[in-house]
Amino acid sequence: MALLCVLVSSGCVQPAVCGNGICEAGETHESCPVESGGDCPPVELCGNGFCDEGAGENFENCPADCKAQHYECCGEYCVLVDGAEPDECSVDGDCAAEPAESCFVELYIEETKSAGSIGFSLLEAEAVYGAYAGLVVPLDSVDEADYALRTYNGEGMLLGEYAAYSSRFVVFDDFSDEGEAFGMEIETDYGVIEAILPHDVGVAAVTVYCNGSETDLGLDFRDLEGSC
Question: Does residue 96 lie in a domain region?
Answer without folding.
Answer: no
